[in-house]
């Protein structure tokens, strides 16, 4: 990337654009899941998978790939308990990808010299020094 070593305006613009895109996509994923629109959820997973892969966000990419294939999983399960379990798995993947995103977003914000946003709070990291107190 053509980036100034100190300012990093170019890469920051790309990363912050991804943040907006991801947050909007998560909202759409929640709506699609609540309507049991697995086709839309699959497309959203595919969309966010590509964006996260471009930035090298592997955990986010991998979770989005699972969502991309959720439609096939649901269709394989049919009805009943197996389908309910598949729904629970999909809901868990959505939650997990959001958590993975929040973790990487906080790290990237810190890299660009900004504090994490209030909804991106990280769990307290324990260092050997803090455990001794």
From TrEMBL:
Q: Phosphohistidine is carried by which residues?
A: 46
List this protein's GO terms for biological process. Answer: phosphorelay signal transduction system
For this protein, the record's CDD domains field holds: HPT (cd00088)
Domain HPt per the UniProt entry, residue ranges: 7-111
Recorded hits in Pfam families, A to Z, give: Hpt (PF01627)
Q: Mind listing the UniProt keywords for this protein, alphabetically?
A: Kinase, Phosphoprotein, Transferase
* MF (Gene Ontology): histidine phosphotransfer kinase activity; protein histidine kinase binding
Task: Identify the GO cellular component terms for this protein.
Answer: cytoplasm; nucleus
Q: Which Gene3D superfamilies does the annotation name?
A: HPT domain
Regions of biased composition (Basic and acidic residues) lie at 124-133
**Region entry Disordered, spans:** 112-133
Name used for this protein in its record:
Signal transduction histidine kinase
